[in-house]
Design a protein that fits this description.
The chain is of the alpha/beta class. It contains 13 helices and 19 strands.
Amino acid sequence: TMQWVANHKSQMNENRRLGRRRHRPNCDAHSLEKLFLCSAILVVVAFLSYGTLHHAGNDAAVVTKTTLLRPPPPRRGKKKQQQRDDVVMDDEYGSGRVRSDGHHRGHNENNSESGNSLSHGQAERNSQIIPPPKAPPPPHEDTSPDAHFNSYPVFYRDYKEGFHSNSHCIGENFQSDAWKFRSCHFHNLCFDTEESIFILFISPEQKKLDEALSHSKVDMIWPASHGNTTVSVGGLNPMWGPEHKDMEWYPTMRSTDELKSQGGYYMLEQEKVLIPWHSLAGFNPGHLVWDDFLPLYTLLSIFDLIGKEMVLIRFDLWRLAMWASCQRQWGKCRPMLEKFLPLLGTELNRTSTQNDTQLELDSPKKSKYVCAPNGAAGLGFLTDHGAKLHGWQKTDYEYAHNIGRGGTIYEFRNWMEHNVLGAKDTYLQAPKWNIHKPPYRIILSKGSSSMPTRFGSFDKHAELIQRRLGNKYDMDIREVTLKRLSIKEQVELVAEASIFVTMCGGGAVTAMFLPKGASIFAYFNEDIEKGPLGNKRGNTAARLDWDLLNHIGYLRVHWLSRPQINVTEDGEPGDSQSKLDVDVFVSLVDQELDLISHLADY
């Protein structure tokens, strides 16, 4: 428009110069001014319209296509007016929002403010718009179960074509012992309640792949999972001999035709995960939590199954019970499992071995199979020590197994606390620093180890702390025999402590529940420990579980040699060595309390 006006004025000036008098439109100054104004308005309107449509984006396109599936009835009136209304309709629908009263809202959400209210005809037409089809609601489990498997509700499902199992395994190292390092996640892991074995119903595609891989010339292909992707059903004890091979396991694979012949199967709820596991040495609380529970948690974490409830089937070996395992020492394991299983969010009466599962029926039995949407297995070297011992040998200190695992251990701690206490500070929400406040709780764990070589008395320590630091800090000093408390009482007690004093070993496991920023004083025997028959347990001073404790990022861990303090009648050290030990201990407590008292400042 502006270019046309400029050309027109140039032509007029040329005509005047040559004295020409030709017909020209009435373009006086006033008309040109109005023309410029109209042009500017058109440019602004076009720009704003483009911006609005561009902002509506793909959603506008989707809504426009959906809402115009059924065209509105024709309007009476002139063709030009109908075309104009159609353009307005497209523009209005493009914003993607229609009020329930038939009026459309643009991006300002209130057209009355800008004077853009719709006519009655437009409102009537909008009220006839067909909304986009709604997605079907998610399927819900039947309200009443058809049976109970180890007290968990199960629901019968008829077999349908296409149902099968699959697996995804990680940890392959291309060696003959890869089964020790692998872990697997299963979909539709099933259990045969009559033969007491775990089953995978393989698809025709999986069967064809396994047949191809079985060819003798195929030896350099490693799929993520196939029939030979075995795992270790439990944590591995390095002290086991060749019999550890009995821990290698994988579900039995069957054709879906077998399931089809049964007619169907019982299915656990969606939030359940079926896990076969073998306890390394569950009669000891340290082994139970760090060699059984930590690997189980890690297994869930690896495959993003943390929010699901574990259905645990303890695995008894069919040939040889492993040394120190619960299969050999069930009388000692049972009370430990009863006490500590709530840390996993379950109870002993909701678990069993594969040989004594219970399928309690509310109607005639329809299938021998119980399946779970999710399953997992492969604990092997997910323990706190991996392929080495806990600190008995000099070689145990040559490398660390838990490097970079501090965050996982802290989440494990919070997850267990949540299972026991239903704590507000869940495994997704870290506890606050301000849990440390006067009076600062100091726990001295009495009788934390039943081993004579690891026995240490802290009777005098409490008196010395109070005498030397009582005027400086407000302290709540408690001497506690933790084994006399329930696991819930232990967690509640320790979760609000600032300093925890204990002998290293299984009795120190409760220190895991200390809050962030707390301190552990771990005492060890500076001599080489001997067993009941006088045989040496190792070849160095055993700082047991050092690999785990020294990689916990939320706690400060201090190692001290076994306390041997002789005191006089006035409660002070009676010899030079005792004086040195006391000075170090009290000074360390002083430093830690000073640090803890300032945590809220950081």
